Amino acid sequence: MIVNASNVGLRQGATRILHAVDVAASAGEVVGIIGPNGAGKSTLLRAIAGVVIPDEGEITIAGVDVARARPRLLARQLALVEQHPVMQFDFSVRDYVLLGRHAHLGRFQAEGAADAAHATAALEKVGISAFASRNVTTLSGGERQLVAIARALVQQPRALLLDEPTSALDLSHQLRVLELVRDLAAEQLAVIVVVHDLDLAARMCDRLVLLVDGRVSADGPPEKVLDADLLRDAYHVHSVVRPSPDTGAQTVTALRHIPTPNNKS
Ligand SMILES: Nc1ncnc2c1ncn2[C@@H]1O[C@H](COP(=O)(O)OP(=O)(O)OP(=O)(O)O)[C@@H](O)[C@H]1O
């Protein structure tokens, strides 16, 4: 197992956000975290990345305790791509991506030709070579997502954590990310990805973890977790779930929402 988060509990002030959450991902596996807005998906991903430290539980990546590891060691184990990457410094895309190599360099060591080759390969893989010289502050939201993914790749982590990586992407780039994630899993990375688009989740992921109110309500293959009853309880919608005749993956069509005391129509 590469990622092992067990019994994770986390509070922000007086609010309990995660309750005894278990999530694991092995090498070569793509695990999707799905669930309604505010369920705790991003918080869980940030906890796995060591950005926030849980109040309870234990998180290890390739055996390294995330809460105790030194940043450089942690950066060789995992890379986190946040939903809205902040890029406010005056870097070119290439130089920004190269920053990911620092996980592998000594403290005052400059990047060399091999590092530059990693950056070139990552830019190509993600399909953004054309704007390698652009200033990152000028990029669109979707372009920033792709640049952040390229930077994560040059880190050569054991685990890749992606927070809604396709939320700002057009159809073609969504597909490209889906294929990239599958390719990375084939190279034995463990991938954990937060996704709202359930059809995309079904195509991209080997396993889905459904998070509701900070608790795991289901964990299993997409065929099991994308179940109309489970989705009704989680999202308060009536839906039809059926396999796509084209891809074979489950597709979810939400038909109507069910009014609840907190969710009036
Ligand atoms: N620093 C904080 N202080 C108080 N509450 C917080 C804090 N950070 C997150 N929360 C709350 O924790 C809950 C979970 O947030 P989180 O961003 O993890 O949800 P999410 O499942 O990723 O949601 P979304 O799908 O809308 O992105 C939300 O209700 C959010 O308002």
Automatic annotation (TrEMBL):
The keyword ATP-binding applies. It holds the Pfam family ABC_tran. The keyword Acyltransferase does not apply. Keywords: ATP-binding, Nucleotide-binding, Translocase, Transport. It comes from the Bacteria. Residues 3-238 form the ABC transporter domain. GO terms for molecular function: ATP binding. This is Heme ABC transporter ATP-binding protein.
